[in-house]
Write a structure and sequence with these properties.
- About 25% of the residues lie in helices and about 45% in strands.
- By secondary structure, it is α+β, with helices and mostly antiparallel strands.
- The chain has a single domain, classed as START domain (Alpha-D-Glucose-1,6-Bisphosphate, Chain A, domain 4), CATH 3.30.530.
- A hairpin with a 2-residue loop joins strand 5 and strand 6.
- Helix 1 packs across helix 2 and helix 2 packs across helix 3.
- It is globular, with a radius of gyration of 15 Å.
Length: about 150
């Protein structure tokens, strides 16, 4: 559905990491690990069904806030969450995301699927897609540098 007040879209990103699934899962489920690759030292996180996550960052546009709620966590396999992004106190996207972890040749294939409601003005799906692409690359860099995960 698309109109002047909102629009819906979806996208899927996949990355293969050389690390085993347990190490990739830990990077999502352990607060200090996730804060490191997200670049969010003040990350608040309660990783459980019904739990939450909150992070804030500043850039030239202003203050960006991510508020996440976890709905399903299937250990080592799948995370289902919903999150909103706001800029300077105005929510501009609300999303449902599913993150799937699969074994692949000794490593892990991560599949990130997001269904998004864009509330203009917003960078919308292009912004979320670009942001998550960069974050999944940052996860790969973190996993390469974290000797404990190799």
């Amino acid at each position: 559905m698309t109109d002047a007040t909102h629009r819906h879209d979806s996208f899927t990103l996949e990355q293969v990491y050389p690390n085993c699934r347990a190490h990739v899962w830990a990077a999502w489920s352990v607060r200090d690990k996730k804060a490191a690759w997200l670049g969010a030292p003040a990350l608040e996180m309660d990783f459980r069904p019904g739990g939450f996550e909150r992070s804030v960052f500043q850039d030239a546009i202003g203050e960006h806030v991510n508020e996440t709620h976890y709905f399903e966590i299937k250990e080592g396999e799948r995370i289902v969450l919903a999150y909103s992004m706001s800029v300077n106190g105005r929510i501009h996207t609300v999303s449902l995301a599913t993150i799937v972890f699969l074994d692949e040749g000794g490593g892990t294939r991560l599949r990130y699927t997001e269904q998004i409601c864009v509330i203009p003005p917003s960078d919308g799906m292009a912004g979320r897609r670009q942001g998550w692409s960069a974050l999944l690359d940052a996860l790969g860099s973190y996993l390469r540098s974290d000797r404990r995960s190799n």
